[in-house]
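Quick question, first post here. What does this chain look like in 3D?
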Amino acid sequence: MTLRTAWPEGVPRKMETADVPFFPQTEFQCGPAAMATVMSRTGAAVTPELLADQIYLPARQGSLQVEMLAAPRRWGRVGYLLAPRFADLLREVAAGNPVVVLQDVGDFFTQWHYAVITGFDYERGDLYLRSGTEPRRVMPFTAFERTWIKGGYWAMVVTAPDRIPASATEPGWIHAVVGLERGGDREATIAGYRAALDRWPDNLPAAIGLANQHHGRGALIEAALVLRKALQRHPQSTVVMNNLAQTLTDQGRHGEALLQVEAALKQPGPFESEVQATRQLILGRLAQ
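> Answer (accepted):
Ran it through. Tokens below.
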């Protein structure tokens, strides 16, 4: 396999995170057990029993990947789907992020199984897993890959919203935070967008999302500050101009807001109706 000839750059040859919690699985409960393992690592107070009702499907006698990715949101955590390649898996483990993987462990028929990778040893060619009732199962790279490939190299990590995974891409992280936002945890979402802007200061969706979260909790000064910074980086953004105008008029600064919305109307684009609605709101407030 390629790991023997092309080890990922920057990844140590040997790594194991020994203090990852272990929850032995009961029959068909590998999904909740694996999820409790990685979520507990982030400090979330969860057990397989707490997670079972959310991600275990009795009719299927297992857990679907979509439920696995969504479950962390209820605890203010981010479930991040890794790219289907060994290098990203190893980078996450090396960064101290245990990785949930989907395997087919059946000998003669398909038997899906979730396990958690906690370490590796290049010289020995081994991976270390929390799996089933084994707190430290040793699997050779090649044997593991044969079980992993059948699930399309599916893998995920769980992190706190202010801790971006080692292998995360800019669009991948924003997609994950948007999922967290839909779960309704405002403070966790704010932390996720802030982390995105710390790493990728030019990310427009993160700036708009962060400003929206501040606005939604009534923190208008913070929302305006985020939008002004975004406008410096994206001076042609109609959405930023419009949202800043909305925020300013909500602060009672209607004159400034009108100037901002008039500037937005000069920008061609698909948001003219929204901008016109904001303008009418400002004019109505000025008339009062």
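Strands lie at 14-16, 78-81, 99-104, 112-121, 126-131, 134-140, 155-159.
The radius of gyration is 23 Å.
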